[in-house]
């Protein structure tokens, strides 16, 4: 297993974890950019503003991956992912496919070497509770913005589902390359 020592990190970081975070930020940036283009193209430019904010935060986190502690980068990644999942499900509803981002979030946490087994299990329980709370909220409350046009719904769903899977591939692919 390759190791990389960041000049701003007192810890030695596994190469696969560094690449997984880096690739996940890049996939998120492409995802947010594509989502902004699609939402704006369908005539909802105000709905694209939160995605633009997340895009900026994601690009800043990607830039600072080499300038801050990897542990902080993991916290930024978790915050970006969990925040986006909660926001998107709250505003657009359960059927949009935003839940596909939960599995890559859990995998990044599981492959982190900086947390104890208790912290990893606690984070998994937190993700489960967050998912269940969002599910029950979405079942009892209508979304803030109802996507009434089927084309918009299909486009948003396909983007969320495909990029959720690509984020998962971005986490697993560096691990597979390093282990072979």
Report on this model:
- By secondary structure, this protein is mostly helical.
- It contains six helices and two strands.
- It has helices spanning 15-41, 48-63, 70-92, 102-110, 117-140, 150-179, and strands at 3-5, 12-14.
- The protein has a two-stranded antiparallel sheet with strand order 1-2.
- Helix 2 (48-63) runs antiparallel to helix 3 (70-92), helix 4 packs antiparallel against helix 5 and helix 4 packs parallel to helix 6.
- The longest helix has 30 residues, at 150-179.
- Mean pLDDT is 76; it is low at 171-180.
Structural class: mainly alpha
Q: For the CA atoms, what is the radius of gyration? A: 17 Å
Largest β-sheet summary: 2 strands, antiparallel
Helix content: over 70%
Low-pLDDT stretches are: 171-180
Could you outline the blueprint of secondary structure elements for this entry?
Blueprint: E1 3-5, E2 12-14, H1 15-41, H2 48-63, H3 70-92, H4 102-110, H5 117-140, H6 150-179
Antiparallel strand pairs: 1-2
Helix pairs in contact: 1-2, 1-3, 1-6, 2-3, 3-4, 4-5, 4-6
Give the gist of this structure:
The chain is mainly α. It has helices spanning 15-41, 48-63, 70-92, 102-110, 117-140, 150-179, and strands at 3-5, 12-14.
